[in-house]
Task: structure prediction
Amino acid sequence: MEDSLDYIYKEQKELSVYGGIAALLGWDQMTYMPADGAAERAEQTALISRLSHEKFTSEKLWNHVQKLMNPNVLGTLQKKDKAVVVRLQKDIEKSRKVPSEFVERISKTTTLAYPAWQEAREKSDFSIFLPHLEKIVELEKEYCGFIDLPGPRYNSLLDDYEEGMTVDRLKGEFDFLKSSLIELLEKITSSEIYEKQHGFDKKVSVEKQREICNVVIEKMGLPRNRSRLDVSTHPFTTSMGYDDVRITTNFERENPLFSFFSTVHETGHALYELRMPRDEYKNTVISDSPSLGLHESQSRFWENMIARSKSFWNLFYPIFKNSSPEYFKDLDIETWYRYVNQVRPSLIRVEADELTYCLHVILRFELELELMNDKINVPELPGLWNEKMQEMLGVSPANDREGVLQDMHWSGGSFGYFPTYAIGTIYASQLFYQLTKDNPSIYDEIENGNFTNILSWLEEKIHKHGRLMAADEIIKKVCGEGLNSKVFIGYLKDKYYDLYDV
Result:
């Protein structure tokens, strides 16, 4: 028994190191790698992916896990060891369904697809990305055949990101969410305040934007000796190890709020990454988030519930004003707060206001579902995308860059990922509701720039559990119920009916 325990912990430690190497290769490709390095980088990432998969699915590791899973042995294990073994067995069993050759093939395909997506986006030409995406979609269908969960093919993709979630359950939540959001949007866009609102058209330099982003990172408590901020086409967070998390933002837009909110969002992810269970669970399958939806709840919590609150802007408005006084001299805080929370149906998901954001996600979910169900083909995506944008949001992209090419996810084969953004948004509203019940003075603390209690609360309620429980189980434990879109809709009504005098 001791030999088996020693072996599974040694292998998990090595797999953790492999994961850090793969993360570093991916981060470099999306930040500093020369454009012509893509072909060799595809070989490097494919090799690491194959080696990791072969190690994780090896007969030797599987046999040791099976010995420990023997009821006569499992019952004698310490609580910590039992949790690791049970989780490891489930993960390996799923991974062993997928051939190493396939893992290498899809890794190489997606690594080459990313620069093609970048070029297509830059030129606003879907045809450049089209052949790559067609290969990826076929590979995703092939993957579903290996995993073969009951129900629609898409269940096998969804389970990778939100374990236990099914199309039937998600569709029920999303159907309610979609109709409720469209109803809310119609009421707001019919209001007098909406008709009179106008955007913030001031231009803030990259240097000033970067300064503000660095300030908010520090205020939120992200340790700079364990993290760094860089620039990428699409903002993201990745972790190379327990003391090395990287976040990116983007300064393409002269409106400072895009880089600001994307930095807050990614910092929320980073704070979670840096607080994963260490000590006895370090370098094990337990030391991770149980789902991307729960991970996304941390970023959306900070981005929306905290950083779009009136209390937050009582703190941060003076910082913005001091950074560019020429733009804010005739702009009072109330006007600025309304602008920050302005509802304005838009084309780009990452720029969407918090009320319309989930409609962007549902659009992608519906298209992915139809692709996997063989109801549509890849060349149809740009046209169908534009139709759904018009149907849900009343806006239509003028080109592919504004439409189907705006996200990097499909280039990486991340089908089933998008729904987690909406799941995380719903979870975030539930967590915030519970936080305000547990700590009624939280708004005062935010206004005073004191985020210590928020971080401690999140660490105690979410971060410390890692994968000891499923995401929905953690939410039930904290909030008294699992995923519930009605809480999110209630949050939106309370906030936006007041803002728009509905």
In short: Residues 2-31 form the longest helix (30 residues). The first strand starts at residue 227 and ends at 231.
